[in-house]
Amino acid sequence: MSTAALPQDRKAHLDTLAITLLVVCCAFWGFQQILIKVAGREIAPMWQAALRMWGATALLWLWCRGRRVPLFERDGSLPAGLLVGALFAAEFVCLYVGLQYTAASRLTVFLYTSPFWVALLVPRFVPSERLRVRQWLGLCLAFAAVVLAFAEALTQPVAAQQWWGDALGLAAGLFWGLTTVAIRSTRIAQVSAEKSLFYQLGVTAAVTPVLSLLWGEPWGWSYSAMAWGSVFLQTAVGAFATYLAWMWMLRHYPATRVATFTFLTPLFALVFGVALLDEPLTLQLLLALGGVTAGIVLVSRR
What we know:
Layout: H1 16-40, H2 45-67, H3 78-98, H4 104-111, H5 114-125, H6 133-149, H7 151-155, H8 160-185, H9 193-214, H10 225-252, H11 255-260, H12 264-276, H13 283-300
Helix pairs in contact: 1-10, 1-12, 2-9, 2-10, 3-8, 3-9, 4-8, 5-8, 6-13, 9-10, 12-13
């Protein structure tokens, strides 16, 4: 990888627009866990992922046609784009397979080690994004708060196969972090957010149906309106709108600070569990919310 040139309008700190977009994205990603569970009652994991990625790729292509955003021009980004797409696909495969072996709450903690990989690796290619001691403390505080939120699930007896799921969750976090690093440190940093996302969705849309067939998952179309509604929201809002906003932010703001906000996602998932599934609101959750907020403030402050 080589250090990519920065966009002329790239900003050194998060502004109100970035913070608002990040909170909205994290809120939906937290809600998305509920959507995946709803659709998962009827649709096999890899087949669900394939439907989602096919739909999102089609929406992105239509978006680019309408806005005249070139996707197939020769700009030297193909090798880096395929790398980014492969890392993105690997993250989703580890995530969906890992959920077959361990609880979502356990896997979530391991998945959100991603900001640590970003903070460790991005500064090697983009020195301006190196975190200071105070910001590292904020990063650790936010992660500790997430662990606190899921402490009960982490301390329960673990079956032998759950360790396999935990390892896949950790791998998913690593691949997510490496995807961010690749976006920031290769020629992908110089292409549009739409083209960056197109590489990721396109490769994943090609990989997931193949894996679904290899694993013998049942394919079908006769699902309930609830299941299709869940897939639609995952596709149109999750894999298209919020991921496009995420790619745009990685292009225009420091990746190390942007990545820290993802610690909000698992806590939003718990909050939605309280609001929509009548799960108890505990002191542990309130402390975790405060800890993540404090950690993000420490990382994001100028």
